[in-house]
Amino acid sequence: MARQTVRHEEGAIYEFTPELEPITEVEPGTELTIETRDSLDGAVQSDADVIESIPDEVNAATGPIAVAGATPGDVLKVEIEAIRVTEPAGRVITIDGFGLLDGEPDIAAPKSRMTPVDGETLSFGDLEIPIDPVIGTIGVAPQEESYTTLVPHDHGGNLDTTDITAGNTVYFPIFQPGGQLAMGDCKAAMADGEMCGTGSEIATDIDISVDLIESPAVSLQRPLVETPNAWKTLASAETMEDASKLANQDAIGLLAAEHDFEPTEAYMFSSLVGGLEISQVVDPLVTVRNAIPKTYLADPL
Amino acid sequence: MARQTVRHEEGAIYEFTPELEPITEVEPGTELTIETRDSLDGAVQSDADVIESIPDEVNAATGPIAVAGATPGDVLKVEIEAIRVTEPAGRVITIDGFGLLDGEPDIAAPKSRMTPVDGETLSFGDLEIPIDPVIGTIGVAPQEESYTTLVPHDHGGNLDTTDITAGNTVYFPIFQPGGQLAMGDCKAAMADGEMCGTGSEIATDIDISVDLIESPAVSLQRPLVETPNAWKTLASAETMEDASKLANQDAIGLLAAEHDFEPTEAYMFSSLVGGLEISQVVDPLVTVRNAIPKTYLADPL
After folding, report:
1. pLDDT band at B1 (very low <50, low <70, confident <90, very high)
2. Chain A residues touching residue B198 (CB < 8 angstroms)
3. Each residue of A232-242: pLDDT tens digit?
4. Partners of A80 in the beta sheet?
5. Is the CATH number 2.60.120.580 carried by domain A4-216?
6. Is the pTM of this model over 0.80?
7. Which of residues 156-175 of B touch A (CB under 8 A)?
8. N or C end of chain B, less CB within 10 A?
């Protein structure tokens, strides 16, 4: 089956709602290339282009893409095969009212800084950073509430997680028929935390394959990421403490199911291996992961 | 100069105070072996030994050790050469009122679980975990306030950070003459986050060498860790958000000094490489790191 391309112009959303209408439907097992624009939709093309306040529409997510047969309770498996940057520069910006150090006296906003791409690196002044693209916003139609593409929650959305990158696989709970996958808001590089509020925001082509897991071994409540070495639960909440609790509870559930642990045993075990990781601390809800090495968690789904 | 041993019986503290009196004084460049007891001072020797509430005295830190010539404004460099576990088992425990999931209905406290050591691994039931010891509590005499060894702050203390391990170097600001280094509360293994409130708590012998950096290139406010690949600022605060801010501000300061960046430039750059990492989320103050790869930060001190 030839790889199918989904172009940004065919459809993009700024809100994940329970009622999303797909722009295309694909069979499980389909390989796709998703074209995405940068999170600011081209508004920043030089250091002089600054963003005064967060736009009403930001983080356009190309899609939604329905997966045939996807039914609430199933799990959507999205294997990220490659992410190619498709413009000659990304941009890092500060916006007044946004970012970890927003309002600190020595931090200026709005500011923009172009980060030109040259082959496999991008530059920030004299410094060169290897390009390591991340998908910032990726998710499915939520259960009940709607969430703009600035917000992460149980459906995914603006997760801003460095592990959502080529070579890894993301799993989403399916809340609505067809799942309704959409993604965008890529970064050429991003730190864990995304402190200033952005990575190097850039347009990309993303190669993925999508598949379904029917009757998963556990009931997935939130996104899950598989890296070559670990499984990582992903949770978003008002505070990092609350996000940590959810991510840890999800990890405990997976450990308990695989090892027939009591919850307290799984909790103790989770305190010995892998651990909590910060995804981002700047979006309206913040996101934390709990990593469990595959040595201790072979195949949770 | 022969390696000098500091035995737990010679002295151990349960509070870092500005007025600490040393049990010994060593010259810069001295190699030491520090004997430590487990954080619970031997109270848990079987799964039946439970801890009803946090003891008034916990996390005994062997020391204090004065370093000759250490003067406020200098930096104390502690190179961790090796950490050897010195008892046949560690223990993981839950205590009512403590831990990330304290009070959750399916989490039981108090509970204790011995984790026997066999060569290079420890066991948790059928699962084997490689021993990778961490120093939980390490610090110097603080500037003004006193902190029990349960609390981390700018002087160090109960940092519970997996990077404080063999092969890495920890740097502390010197607030008081002699510095007054003390350490203990080791774990045979610990997850980032230390979610249940402990790792596998265990007695150890720690090989370190201590040295002074006089007139450091930057004024160090809080601990800093050097790993083979990165420099990591370490900050403790009431919330993870506040700890993240402090850790990021410290990282920005180091980046700005090395690259002659404006603070906003350094902030933007910090949002592209390395990033925020969780140390622990369970102590009275929580601890977050900001890692900067050495590629971008060669020698901040």
Report:
1. low
2. 271
3. 999 999 999 99
4. A208
5. yes
6. yes
7. 162
8. N
